[in-house]
Amino acid sequence: MKIRVFWVAAIAVALMFAAGVGLRLNTGGHISALYIAFSLYFSINLLICYWEICLYLRRDLVEKRLTYWQERRRETGNNPAIEFLTTRIPVTQVFSSPLWADIWATYSVYDDAYANRRTYGFNVDIANGFATIVPTLVLYAALTTEFLPAVVTGMIGLALCWQWVYMTSIYMASVFIGKQHLNIARNELIIFVLAPNGPWILIPLLGLYIFARMILDGSYQVMPF
């Protein structure tokens, strides 16, 4: 039995999102637009944390596979990211670290920083994978069940959101300062670089306000339960 890579990622996010929504409803919580936005964001970040850990574990493979995808693009004219996401894989490989490391090789066609372990982009994403997976889980659970005092949740959320805004902003700036954008078609720059990274600035910016309010108010009232 085989499944497209895109559906593996979509199902993983959907399951984590549904788990949070289901638990919140089961505990009598209110499903607000804010909760939906953050639970979806946390679910996606948890998946990407796994991908970033795979990037670290299979960093040698990423460097080698970049050459493959560059040659593949020249030969076929296909978009590497789309080709990868639409590839059918055996269901036994859905947790494969070489598979998810390969997604970074396709992204490296647009930004080769991820095939160079000395770059900011490579190291900041690895740091996100290892450093934010547990706090993201804790924050997701806290917003879902209120098992932590609002002040504690606010402190965790404020710290996480600030680092997401700061680190992603620097990465986005590095693409332009390093003139990497000149090597990418405008539509691909928007679709494969700006759009995927945008939520890691916009949602955390909203989070800075939400979690600051939690600390100041000492309650979850800003996100009604």
Describe this structure in words.
This protein is mainly alpha-helical and about 220 residues long. It has one domain (about 1-215). It has helices spanning about 5-25, 35-55, 60-75, 80-85, 95-105, 120-145, 150-175, 185-195, 200-215; strands spanning about 1-5, 90. It has a two-stranded antiparallel ribbon with strand order 1-2. The chain is globular and about 60 Å long. The relative contact order is 0.13.
Task: Give a short summary of the structure.
The protein has 225 residues and is mostly helical.
Ordered list of secondary-structure elements with their pairings:
Layout: E1 2-4, H1 5-26, H2 33-57, H3 59-76, H4 80-85, E2 88-90, H5 97-107, H6 120-145, H7 150-177, H8 186-197, H9 199-217
Antiparallel strand pairs: 1-2
